[in-house]
# Entry
Amino acid sequence: LESSWNSSTELHGHLPNKFKNETKYIDSSFYLCIIINIKMKQNNPSTEQGSDRREIRMLSEYKHPYVTVDLLLFSVIDGQLAINLTVRDEEPFKDMYALPGSFIRENESAEGAVERLLSDKLELSGQIYTEQLMTFSDVNRDPRERVISIAYIGIIPDKAMVNVPWMKWFTIQSSNVGSYKLCQVDGDESFICTCLGFDHDKMLEIAIDRLRGKIDYTDIIFKFLKDSKQFTAGTLREIYQSVTGQEINRGNFTKYQMNTYMEHGLIKKTGSISIGRGRPADTYSYIGGDRLWIKY
# Structure
């Protein structure tokens, strides 16, 4: 190092190529710092490896929480928003209704776990619309261990698509106690959503708020359609009312909502009409893909 300090030629030779054209701007003390660093790395090649080992040891000191996905499957049944639930067959919360869910495996993503849940547990084939709701990480949300859940919303256009005996549909109704009342479709069971296992009542309430918010600025309403290639304004209005829980005037819906959908290129008239109990109605086709739109 001393000889290098006394010889600018040797100093220059020690520098990496990217510094050699900039030597006129660097004083000798900076040269010396660079050389010392190079010499130390040459004499201690295991320094970086040791750093990596320390990082690995640090990671091993943290206990890994378990991570699950929980799925909120919604549909519109008999003019009401409905949720798909299952009865737990083991503790905790045995014999209580809960959302379908699964632990995320080591070699899969959260989205992959949702796809596996849809195909394996719910036996749903084909593409089902899903989107991530949020992560629930309260420390004591699962009495067994530290479990973090990533909740997803899914939309089923037709309740008959879920055809496994361990899944039941419940319509979602308002109640006098501040929580939603869940009433079994094709059954007699009913209960307040706070009776769901884990923190699934909280997930349900947040998911309903999400749906009601997004119905006015995205195309999510069309995911509920059984036939997106041919539908009437009346069909879409029924879905809108079911999700929002509010009635909307037929004329206002056509004037504002349907015209807004058309202006943003989400739907178009098919040129055919639907004949039902009332007067013939224009039919529409959904063409908007996954684009978002803003309601002004």
